[in-house]
Specification:
With 431 residues, the chain is of the alpha/beta class. It has two domains: 5-173, Response regulator (Rossmann fold, 3-Layer(aba) Sandwich), CATH 3.40.50.2300; 179-414, Rossmann fold. The protein is 39% helix and 16% strand. An eight-stranded mixed β-sheet has the order 9-10-8-11-7-12-13-14, sandwiched between helices. A six-stranded parallel β-sheet has the order 1-6-5-4-2-3, sandwiched between helices. The chain is elongated, with a radius of gyration of 24 Å. The model is unreliable at 8-43 and 425-431 (pLDDT under 50).
Length: 431
C-alpha cells in the first residue's frame, strides 16, 4: 500500500490537554476557529483541521498532535453537514485534515473521499479499530495515514513529517500563481476602500462556483479600514505578516486571516496605529505567498505611491486607478498615468467613482483628455447606499443597487465572465 501508512501505538492523555502546551484549546463546529499565533518552532508548522464528534477521542488526538507542534491545530466538534462546500473550504486552508472514523464510519469515509478529491491536503483518519477491510476502504477513499488508538507518539510524528514533505512537494509542483489586482486612488477620499472591498466580495461570489478562493489585503497603512467596511474584527493584521516575513508562508498567512460571510478572506490593517515601515522585500514576500495560496488577490493600497517599485505593480494583472471627475482628482490622475503607466507595464483600468453628469462641471471630452484615455468604469453617485453600507457594515455588492451592479460587472470582467444580463421588466397594465 504505497503512500498509505497504518499506525499503531499507545499514547493517551486522559485530561485531553495539549502536552507541553499551556494554550487553551479552541473548539467549534464546521467553521474554523481563529487559533493561537503561529510559533517559530523548527521552521514552518502545519495547519491541521481535527474533525471529531467524540470529545474524548478528539482530545487524545489533539494532545498527541500538539506534542509535535504547538500551534496551527483547529478543532471541529462535528462532521460537516455538506461535503461539497466544507471539503473545499478545508482543502483551501489546511495542510492536513485528521478525521474521526468511528463516530460514523460511512459518513466519515464519504468526507475523506471528498477531501482527497481536492488533491492538496494530506488526509488522515483515526480509529480504535484496525480491521483489514477498513484499512483497505480508507486507502481507496484516499486517506494517506491510518492512526490507531491509543496513539503511539512516534507514529504520529512520522505521519506529520510525511505530511510536511508532501506539502512541500505540492507547493513546488504548482505552475500557476493567483491573479493580483490592485486598487489605488488618485487622491485621498476617492473611495478606494469602498470599491476594493465590494469588488473582492463580488469576485469571491462570482468565482466560488469554479472552486476559486479570494483574498483581500489591506495595505493602506497605517489607517486602512477594510475590516470596518466589512463589519469584521481581526485579531491579526497586515503588519503581523510583514513583521515576521522570515517565517511567512501559506500556513502562517492563513492563521492571520478573517473569513467574511461572503467567502472572501481578509488580511486587515491593524486596529492600532503601528510604528512600522515595511520594506519592499517584505511586501514582495507577502505578495508571493498570497499568490501561492489564493486564486484571486485584491489589494487596497489607498493613495500610497511608495509601493510602485514593489511586486504589487510589477506582477499585477490589473491596476484599478480610482478617481473622480473633480479638477484635483483629474490632475492627479494625469500625473500618475504619465509617470507610471505611459510606457507599458501592468494593465490600467480607470474607475470614475461617484459619477454624476448633472453635478460634474466638466465635460466627457475634458475628462478623457485629462486621463489621456477613456475611463473603463463609471460608478454612479449613490451616497445614500454607501452611507448605509458604512453604518450597517453590509457590503453594497450584496444588494441590488446601481453601484452594486457596476461593481459586479467589474468582478465578472476580471474573472473572464460575460456581463450579467439585464433583468427584464415585468409586464404591467399601468406601464
Amino acid at each position: 500500500m504505497e503512500g498509505f501508512h497504518p499506525s499503531f501505538g499507545s499514547l493517551t492523555e486522559p485530561n485531553g490537554h495539549a502536552a507541553g502546551n499551556g494554550r487553551s484549546r479552541h473548539t467549534g463546529s464546521v467553521t474554523p476557529i481563529q487559533g493561537s499565533y503561529p510559533d517559530a518552532i523548527g521552521g514552518e508548522v502545519l495547519s491541521i483541521a481535527l474533525i471529531g464528534p467524540d470529545m474524548q477521542r478528539r482530545a487524545a488526538v489533539y494532545s498527541s498532535l500538539s506534542v509535535n507542534q504547538s500551534s496551527g491545530i483547529r478543532e471541529f466538534t462535528s462532521y460537516p453537514p455538506r461535503h461539497d462546500d466544507i471539503a473545499k473550504m478545508l482543502e483551501q486552508h489546511y495542510d492536513a485534515v485528521v478525521v474521526d472514523l468511528d463516530s460514523d464510519p460511512e459518513y466519515a469515509l464519504e468526507l475523506v473521499e471528498n477531501l482527497c478529491g481536492q488533491g492538496v491536503a494530506t488526509v488522515m483518519v483515526y480509529s480504535a479499530q484496525a480491521s483489514p477491510e477498513m484499512l483497505v476502504r480508507c486507502m481507496r477513499a484516499g486517506a494517506r495515514e491510518f492512526l490507531t488508538m491509543p496513539l503511539e507518539q512516534g507514529a504520529v510524528a512520522e505521519a506529520l513529517v510525511r505530511a510536511s514533505a508532501r506539502r512541500t512537494t505540492v507547493r513546488s509542483s504548482k505552475k500557476t500563481s493567483g491573479k493580483l489586482m490592485v486598487f489605488m486612488g488618485a487622491k485621498g477620499g476617492a473611495g478606494v476602500t469602498t470599491l476594493a472591498c465590494n469588488f473582492a466580495v463580488s469576485l469571491a461570489q462570482t468565482t466560488a462556483s469554479d472552486g476559486q478562493n479570494t483574498l483581500l489585503i489591506d495595505l493602506d497603512l497605517p489607517l486602512g479600514d477594510a475590516a470596518l467596511n466589512l463589519g469584521i474584527v481581526a485579531e491579526y493584521s497586515t503588519v503581523n505578516a510583514l513583521e515576521a516575513v522570515e517565517r511567512l508562508d501559506a500556513s502562517f498567512l492563513s492563521s492571520l486571516l478573517v473569513k467574511h460571510s461572503s467567502g472572501v478572506s481578509v488580511l486587515a490593517a491593524p486596529g492600532r496605529f503601528p510604528q512600522f515601515q515595511p520594506s519592499y522585500e517584505s511586501i514582495n514576500k507577502l505578495v508571493t505567498v498570497a499568490r501561492e495560496s489564493f486564486d484571486n488577490i485584491v489589494v487596497d493600497v489607498g493613495s500610497r505611491l511608495d509601493l510602485t517599485e514593489t511586486a504589487l505593480y510589477r506582477e499585477a494583472s490589473t491596476i484599478y486607478l480610482v478617481t473622480q471627475a473633480g479638477i484635483p482628482e483629474l490632475r492627479n490622475s494625469n500625473r500618475l498615468i504619465s509617470q507610471f503607466f505611459s510606457a507599458g507595464g501592468p494593465k490600467l483600468e480607470v474607475v470614475l467613482n461617484r459619477y454624476d453628469t448633472r453635478m460634474m462641471g466638466v465635460t466627457e471630452e475634458h475628462i478623457t483628455k485629462a486621463l489621456t484615455r477613456p475611463a473603463q468604469w463609471r460608478i454612479p453617485n449613490d451616497y445614500a447606499s454607501v452611507r448605509k453600507m458604512q453604518i450597517n457594515a453590509t457590503p453594497l455588492a450584496l444588494s441590488d443597487s446601481p453601484v452594486a451592479r457596476l461593481v459586479r460587472q467589474m468582478a465578472r470582467a476580471a474573472a473572464g465572465q460575460d456581463a450579467e444580463p439585464e433583468k427584464k421588466k415585468g409586464f404591467s397594465l399601468f406601464g
